[in-house]
Amino acid sequence: MENEKLLEVKNLQKHFKVGRNKVVKAVDGVTFDIYKGETFGLVGESGSGKSTTGRTIIRLYDASGGEVKFNNEDVHGKKSKDELLKFNRNMQMIFQDPSSSLNPRMTVMDIIAEGLDVHKLVKDEKERKERVEELLEVVGLNREHASRFPHEFSGGQRQRIGIARALAVDPEFIIADEPISALDVSIQAQVVNLLKKLQKERGLTYLFIAHDLSMVKYISDRIGVMYLGNMVELADSDELYKNPLHPYTKSLLTAIPLPDPEYERARKRVSYDASLLDTSEEPEFREVSPRHWVRCTTKEFEQYKKQVKNK
Amino acid sequence: MSKLLEVKDLAISFNTYNGEVQAVRGVSFDLNKGETLAIVGESGSGKSVTTSALMGLLPKPQSIIKSGQILFEGKDLVGKSNKEMQKIRGKEISMVFQDPMSALNPTMKVGNQIMEGLIKHQNMNRNDAKKKAIELLDLVGIPNPETRMTQFPHQFSGGMRQRVVVAIALACNPKVLIADEPTTALDVTIQAQILELMKDIQKETESAIVFITHDLGVVANVADRVAVMYAGKIVEVGTVDDIFYNPKHPYTWGLLGSMPTPDSDEDELFAIPGSPPNMLNPPKGDAFAPRNKFALEIDGVMEPPMFKVSDTHYAATWLLHEDAPKIEPPASVKKRMQGIAKTGGNE
Predict the structure, then answer these.
(1) Is residue A119 part of a domain?
(2) Does residue A166 lie in a domain region?
(3) Mean pLDDT of A7-17
(4) Searching chain A, which residue's CA lies closest to the CA of residue B241?
(5) A–B interface: beta-carbon pairs under 8 A
(6) Which of A214, A255, A264 minimises the CB distance to B259?
(7) Which residue does chain B place closest to A244, by CA atoms?
(8) Does the pLDDT of residue B345 top 50, yes or no?
(9) Are residues A209 and A254 in the same domain?
(10) CB atoms within 10 A of CB B249
(11) Can you tell me the ipTM of this complex?
(12) Could you tell me the pTM of the whole model?
């Protein structure tokens, strides 16, 4: 399953102009691949550029540099309407805040069917209605919900509507930008279970952006850790949890409180001190052990390699 | 340990256009000196309304305290006038709010906001208050407190702002500190710092903390005792070990089961189906029964009383009745009950 690359991100950059001469480098050279059928988790603090990365991949922002290839086709750059349509159909997004990402003046039917209309996937009104009702059931809502408005639903139900909308056009790839952060704990589990089930049934590929590390670990096959616009570490999720190498990843992992009092009493937090890093040269993204990448300098690279061997 | 705060059978309703919303339906708990009580529950379970009542901050006139007492050092806070509450609020009981951006006044220098309480409650003059404010900023770990005093909230980062809010809350050495989701808006690394800060300060000042959150990880980190709220009631209360290693209420099971642990490999999380009840007309009997797959017939008829599990541990579920069938918590929850440390999570 992990041989075919679905998405290739190469040295992606997104810079925002702030004021006259200032530039914020929100994403500053990020490189990773996402394979077909996997869930790729992207974690980091606010301001690390994880959401910007997601939004740039799906063309909500134009990239300042680098390239994104989806199914071996360049995502950015000039495109004809037809090309855009095809691309938009294959890549969809689920947003963080289900109340602001649904148009309050549209019925659930119209919200979900918007993609169907744009891509002309249904012939007539009857088929449209059928498709929407089918989708509602897939995400665990009732057929009768189609005629209602978003404000009539709870947060968890709204997020389900967002998922149904993303699924409507039968995409291959879904970017989920903090899809559960705004939900209650018990509802989070429902939505995560739903996302997992859909992935199994439809062979979806996810880019899952979140800051809740334990949930990301649970849902992802591989995880990338972002810090200040760069990806500092990338590995299989088990490997990342067991052998974090980059000091920032370590600090992030030791900062998560876990639901276990005894563990919590013993937990020692490692704080991140950027001044301890080797600054003799510009760090690069290197593969320390198979499938485990860390952003480091040559010196640190040797050091990490030793560390991995001793484990 | 002396009881600092005692809440007895508190019930609070809101009048809305649609009718009466029973936000809190008979909540009782107590708080000892120097301890941390965590109140957990979903949004709408009434945890924030309970603490607003403790602070005397319920919106009037649409809210009514229908019954109950809030005894602070033996004196009832219910029915106190706003003027009387102002003497207590900020001085004896103070609060750390969830969103530091909206809790601070954007047009006022940070220093003045901290000094406000000192001047009002401690009758300090401006110079003394200023000194104390600088001390406080230093205490909560803000570098260069003198210059920071003259800055505005927007010049602070989220974590730093929350430190300022903590400093304001601590200014008058309150006996009770209420923290309403103080770290929900913050990043994990910043959250860890703020939690450590609050624990350190508690050690020094011996204040009691009521900590409201829905994050069980945070609860395990800070709490001595835990109260689990559902639909306006406390359904289970106990020490932090009781709740995490020997939970009795199916709702607590659901909360624990819905959080993945670092080494969990189950295909599905143990999610609680459905959504919380509408408190306009709370369900008959056990409010959790419609979402509870272990519900008994009696749950639909009669509300369960608090059953005693041990001296510190109580739970309101019919499953604890002697005639009830013995039901074991689901496997995934049991695994969590054994603790992550023992099942070998990340070191």
Answers:
(1) no
(2) no
(3) 92
(4) A261
(5) 129
(6) A214
(7) B346
(8) no
(9) no
(10) 29
(11) 0.79
(12) 0.85
